[in-house]
Protein backbone atom coordinates (compact mmCIF):
# COMPACT_ATOMS: atom_id res chain seq x y z
CA UNK A 1 0.00 0.00 0.00
CA UNK A 2 2.91 2.32 0.67
CA UNK A 3 4.19 1.98 -2.90
CA UNK A 4 0.72 2.83 -4.23
CA UNK A 5 0.76 6.02 -2.17
CA UNK A 6 4.22 6.95 -3.47
CA UNK A 7 2.92 6.57 -7.04
CA UNK A 8 -0.26 8.50 -6.20
CA UNK A 9 1.67 11.42 -4.73
CA UNK A 10 4.45 11.60 -7.32
CA UNK A 11 2.74 10.55 -10.56
CA UNK A 12 -1.00 11.20 -10.15
CA UNK A 13 -0.88 14.23 -7.86
CA UNK A 14 2.50 15.43 -9.20
CA UNK A 15 3.72 16.58 -5.82
CA UNK A 16 7.16 18.09 -5.54
CA UNK A 17 9.63 16.82 -2.94
CA UNK A 18 8.63 19.71 -0.69
CA UNK A 19 4.92 18.85 -1.01
CA UNK A 20 5.38 15.10 -0.52
CA UNK A 21 3.59 13.80 2.60
CA UNK A 22 5.88 11.21 4.19
CA UNK A 23 3.44 10.63 7.05
CA UNK A 24 0.76 9.67 4.57
CA UNK A 25 3.03 7.06 2.97
CA UNK A 26 3.94 5.71 6.41
CA UNK A 27 0.21 5.36 7.23
CA UNK A 28 -0.42 3.45 4.00
CA UNK A 29 2.64 1.25 4.55
CA UNK A 30 1.58 0.46 8.12
CA UNK A 31 -2.00 -0.35 7.17
CA UNK A 32 -0.79 -2.64 4.38
CA UNK A 33 1.78 -4.41 6.53
CA UNK A 34 -0.07 -4.70 9.82
CA UNK A 35 -3.72 -4.80 8.76
CA UNK A 36 -4.44 -5.56 5.10
CA UNK A 37 -1.80 -8.25 4.55
CA UNK A 38 -2.79 -10.43 7.52
CA UNK A 39 -6.51 -9.88 6.88
CA UNK A 40 -6.23 -10.91 3.21
CA UNK A 41 -4.22 -14.01 4.07
CA UNK A 42 -6.76 -15.09 6.67
CA UNK A 43 -9.65 -14.30 4.32
CA UNK A 44 -8.30 -16.49 1.52
CA UNK A 45 -7.72 -19.38 3.91
CA UNK A 46 -11.29 -18.94 5.23
CA UNK A 47 -12.72 -18.99 1.71
CA UNK A 48 -10.84 -22.22 0.98
CA UNK A 49 -12.31 -23.82 4.10
CA UNK A 50 -15.80 -22.53 3.31
CA UNK A 51 -15.78 -23.66 -0.33
CA UNK A 52 -13.95 -26.94 -0.71
CA UNK A 53 -12.87 -28.26 -4.07
CA UNK A 54 -11.87 -26.65 -7.32
CA UNK A 55 -13.35 -25.69 -10.62
CA UNK A 56 -15.38 -22.86 -12.06
CA UNK A 57 -18.37 -23.21 -9.69
CA UNK A 58 -16.15 -23.00 -6.60
CA UNK A 59 -14.23 -20.05 -8.07
CA UNK A 60 -17.52 -18.22 -8.75
CA UNK A 61 -18.73 -18.84 -5.17
CA UNK A 62 -15.45 -17.54 -3.76
CA UNK A 63 -15.49 -14.48 -6.00
CA UNK A 64 -19.13 -13.65 -5.16
CA UNK A 65 -18.48 -14.05 -1.44
CA UNK A 66 -15.28 -12.00 -1.70
CA UNK A 67 -16.87 -9.19 -3.67
CA UNK A 68 -20.30 -9.30 -2.02
CA UNK A 69 -19.24 -9.53 1.62
CA UNK A 70 -15.56 -8.84 2.08
CA UNK A 71 -14.93 -5.99 -0.39
CA UNK A 72 -17.62 -3.59 0.92
CA UNK A 73 -16.72 -4.21 4.56
CA UNK A 74 -12.96 -3.97 4.01
CA UNK A 75 -13.19 -0.84 1.85
CA UNK A 76 -15.51 0.95 4.28
CA UNK A 77 -13.17 -0.02 7.12
CA UNK A 78 -10.18 1.19 5.12
CA UNK A 79 -11.67 4.63 4.41
CA UNK A 80 -12.76 4.94 8.04
CA UNK A 81 -9.44 3.75 9.46
CA UNK A 82 -7.35 6.03 7.23
CA UNK A 83 -9.48 9.01 8.28
CA UNK A 84 -8.96 8.16 11.94
CA UNK A 85 -5.20 7.71 11.43
CA UNK A 86 -5.09 11.07 9.66
CA UNK A 87 -6.70 12.64 12.72
CA UNK A 88 -9.89 13.71 10.94
CA UNK A 89 -12.87 14.60 13.09
CA UNK A 90 -15.45 11.83 13.39
CA UNK A 91 -18.06 13.85 11.45
CA UNK A 92 -15.60 14.27 8.55
CA UNK A 93 -14.73 10.56 8.58
CA UNK A 94 -18.42 9.57 8.47
CA UNK A 95 -19.03 12.05 5.65
CA UNK A 96 -16.13 10.63 3.62
CA UNK A 97 -17.28 7.05 4.10
CA UNK A 98 -20.86 7.81 3.05
CA UNK A 99 -19.82 10.00 0.11
CA UNK A 100 -16.92 7.96 -1.25
CA UNK A 101 -18.01 4.34 -0.79
CA UNK A 102 -20.24 4.32 -3.89
CA UNK A 103 -17.53 5.48 -6.31
CA UNK A 104 -14.85 3.32 -4.65
CA UNK A 105 -17.04 0.20 -4.81
CA UNK A 106 -18.03 0.94 -8.40
CA UNK A 107 -14.36 1.11 -9.37
CA UNK A 108 -13.63 -2.00 -7.29
CA UNK A 109 -16.27 -3.94 -9.23
CA UNK A 110 -14.69 -2.96 -12.56
CA UNK A 111 -11.39 -4.58 -11.56
CA UNK A 112 -11.57 -7.16 -8.81
CA UNK A 113 -14.26 -9.67 -9.86
CA UNK A 114 -12.25 -10.64 -12.96
CA UNK A 115 -8.96 -10.67 -11.05
CA UNK A 116 -10.45 -12.81 -8.31
CA UNK A 117 -12.00 -15.27 -10.76
CA UNK A 118 -8.57 -15.82 -12.28
CA UNK A 119 -7.00 -15.92 -8.83
CA UNK A 120 -9.47 -18.44 -7.38
CA UNK A 121 -9.57 -20.63 -10.49
CA UNK A 122 -5.91 -20.79 -11.52
CA UNK A 123 -3.72 -19.73 -8.60
CA UNK A 124 -2.79 -22.03 -5.68
CA UNK A 125 -3.85 -20.74 -2.26
CA UNK A 126 -0.31 -19.96 -1.10
CA UNK A 127 0.18 -17.53 -4.04
CA UNK A 128 -3.16 -15.70 -4.02
CA UNK A 129 -2.03 -12.82 -1.84
CA UNK A 130 0.93 -12.32 -4.20
CA UNK A 131 -1.42 -12.07 -7.22
CA UNK A 132 -3.60 -9.61 -5.33
CA UNK A 133 -0.52 -7.57 -4.38
CA UNK A 134 0.57 -7.25 -8.01
CA UNK A 135 -2.84 -5.96 -9.12
CA UNK A 136 -3.20 -3.96 -5.93
CA UNK A 137 -0.27 -1.73 -6.88
CA UNK A 138 -2.56 0.09 -9.30
CA UNK A 139 -5.58 -0.28 -7.02
CA UNK A 140 -3.71 1.13 -4.01
CA UNK A 141 -2.56 4.06 -6.12
CA UNK A 142 -6.24 4.77 -6.85
CA UNK A 143 -7.22 4.34 -3.16
CA UNK A 144 -4.44 6.64 -1.99
CA UNK A 145 -5.41 9.29 -4.50
CA UNK A 146 -9.15 8.91 -3.84
CA UNK A 147 -8.87 8.94 -0.06
CA UNK A 148 -6.68 12.03 -0.09
CA UNK A 149 -8.80 13.69 -2.77
CA UNK A 150 -11.71 13.13 -0.44
CA UNK A 151 -9.77 14.86 2.34
CA UNK A 152 -9.25 17.96 0.21
CA UNK A 153 -12.89 17.98 -0.93
CA UNK A 154 -14.23 17.40 2.60
CA UNK A 155 -12.19 20.19 4.12
CA UNK A 156 -13.57 22.66 1.58
CA UNK A 157 -17.12 21.30 1.92
CA UNK A 158 -17.17 21.39 5.71
CA UNK A 159 -15.50 24.81 6.06
Give structural notes.
There is one protein chain. The chain is an all-alpha fold. Helix content is 84%, strand content 0%. Helix 1 crosses helix 5 and helix 3 packs antiparallel against helix 4. The longest helix has 33 residues. The radius of gyration is 17 Å and the shape is globular. The C terminus is likely disordered.
**What's the main sheet like?**
none
**Beta fraction:** under 5%
Rounded to an integer, what's the Rg over CA atoms?
Answer: 17 Å
- Termini distance? 30 Å
Number of strands: 0
> What class would the helix/strand composition place it in?
mainly alpha
Mean pLDDT: 89
Percent range of helical residues: over 70%
Report the total helices. Answer: 5
- Low-pLDDT stretches: 154-159
How would you describe the shape? globular
Amino acid sequence: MGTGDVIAQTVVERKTLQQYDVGRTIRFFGVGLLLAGPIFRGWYYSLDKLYKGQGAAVAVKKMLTDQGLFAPVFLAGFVLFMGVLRGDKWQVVKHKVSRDMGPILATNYKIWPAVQMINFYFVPLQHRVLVVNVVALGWNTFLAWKSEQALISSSTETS
